[in-house]
Amino acid sequence: MGVMAASIAHEINQSLAGIAASADAGSRWMDRTPPDLDRVRKNFKQIVNASQRAADVIQGIRAMFKSEETPRGAIDLNELIDDVLTLAQSEIQKRSIVVHTELAEQPLSVLANRVQLQQVLFNLVTNAIEAMDAVVDRSRSIVIKTEIGSGVVGIAVEDSGTGIAPKDLEQIFSTFFTTKATGTGMGLSICRSIIEAHGGRLWASPGEPYGAVFRFTLPSGADRACK
């Protein structure tokens, strides 16, 4: 019960932070003269999306802990990245972060649960954002890549943050282990559980010359999705 409560708290806090950021941005656009109603509508849409994501996350975590089957379908990793960057846009702009994407030209299909995969990528992007809070002597940047291997496809998230101590590279995936003052130590543990349940792998490595790189790979779902 403790693990489940911490998991839900971690994921819902992220959605609540997104709702708060979008509401704050919407208020600022409304206070302009004249109000920028197009941007306000965009913020309202982000609030709705974050609210739905919170509900989906709760359902997904509940299913995971009860070992229930979760619906899976063909997902294009390039589209998944676009969706997550839209969810994280407020925090990216607020913290003056530059995001670069290096995406494969062709669709990279995997057979997965969309909400759970979105949860994984959103966690990785959020961690990358927070890892650069203390950076003042260089640009804050995130690079997101789609990658192709032998029978697998995947995503890499690179940041220019403070990096991860070598002794913590594997430990950060342990339940309740965290390097953050206010962290729950659940996010990466849940991410790895989700990726492994999909037959994939999630790991971290040092960035060059700064920061960290998180990668996950999944079996290519192109053939199975077409059946």
Summarize, please.
Helix content is 48%, strand content 19%.
Shape descriptor: globular
The biggest sheet, with number of strands, parallel, antiparallel or mixed sense and barrel status, is: 5 strands, mixed
Oligomer: single chain
Helical coverage, percent range: 40-55%
Q: CATH topology, anyone? A: Heat Shock Protein 90
CATH class: Alpha Beta
What class, by secondary structure content? alpha+beta
Instruction: Please work out how many helical segments DSSP would assign.
Output: 6
What is the H/E string?
Answer: HHEHEEHEEHEEH
Main-sheet strand order equals 2-4-5-7-6
What does this structure look like?
By secondary structure, the chain is of the alpha+beta class. The protein has a single domain (2-225), classed as Histidine kinase-like ATPase, C-terminal domain (Heat Shock Protein 90), CATH 3.30.565.10. It contains six helices and seven strands; from the N terminus they run H-H-E-H-E-E-H-E-E-H-E-E-H. It has a five-stranded mixed β-sheet with strand order 2-4-5-7-6. A hairpin with a 3-residue loop joins strand 4 and strand 5 (152-159). Helix 1 packs across helix 3 and helix 4 runs antiparallel to helix 5 (187-197).
